[in-house]
Amino acid sequence: MTTAPPDVLRCAYAELVVTDLVASRAFYVDVLGLVVTHEDAGALYLRAFEEYLHHSLVLRKGSTPALGVLAYRVRSSADLDLAEAYYRALGCRVERRAAGTTRGVGEAVRVLDPLGFPVEFFHEAEHVERFTQRYDLHGAGALSRLDHFNLDTPDVGAARKYYEGLGFRVSEDIRDAEGTVYAAWMFRKPTVHDVALTGGDGPRLHHIAFASHERHQILHLCDHLGALRQPGAIERGPGRHGVSNAFYLYLRDPDGHRVEIYTHDYYTGDPDNPVITWDVHDNQRRDWWGNPVVPSWYTDASLVLDLSGRVQPVVARAEPREAGVTIGADGFSFTGGAEFKLGEQV
Ligand code: XXG
Ligand code: FE2
Question: How does the average pLDDT of the chain come out, rounded?
Answer without folding.
Answer: 93
